[in-house]
Write a structure and sequence with these properties.
3-stranded antiparallel β-sheet; Tetrahydropterin Synthase, Chain A; about 20% helix
Length: about 150
């Protein structure tokens, strides 16, 4: 799966990357019990859920709402990102505000994992023991977030 998005990483109260974008790739590994029919479960359920997540994030400028260094100001038509004395304007329709501390592959993987593991009953029903979400910003550049049944 993939999504394309703009972002900038915040390094400190005074340093950030310039605005740029990536074609992010998303990889999921699900560890589950194999049933008598030689299958785990209908993994198309998770495939559709992941595709829906990627579609919802596709072609947006992603801004973090939980950064201690970035303040978000919203009007009807614009979103302004305030950083280190800068007021960076965006059309509201182009921005996706995510509940993360930074717009990074680490945070994207964590947020996607939280979405995919949000229903404990479903995880038990499908006998899922572990799930890992890996998000790539480019070849050899990725971060993963994992959940494991306790």
């Amino acid at each position: 799966m993939k999504f394309s998005a703009g972002h900038f990483t915040i390094f400190s109260a005074t340093e950030r990357e310039r605005l740029h974008g990536h074609n992010f790739r998303v990889h999921v590994i699900i560890t589950a019990e194999i049933l008598d029919n030689g299958m785990c479960f209908d993994y198309v359920i998770y495939k559709k859920r992941l595709r829906k997540l990627c579609d919802a994030w596709d072609e947006y400028m992603i801004l973090p709402t939980q950064s201690p260094y970035l303040q978000i100001e919203q009007t009807e038509s614009h979103i302004y990102a305030h950083f280190n004395g800068e007021k960076i304007p965006f059309l509201a329709s182009d921005v996706l505000l995510l509940p993360v501390a930074n717009a990074t592959v680490e945070e994207f993987a964590r947020l996607m994992l939280e979405s995919l593991t949000s229903d404990p009953q479903e995880l038990a029903e499908f006998r899922i023991h572990a799930l890992t979400v890996k998000v790539y910003s480019g070849p050899g550049q990725s971060a993963a977030s994992s959940w494991e049944k306790v």
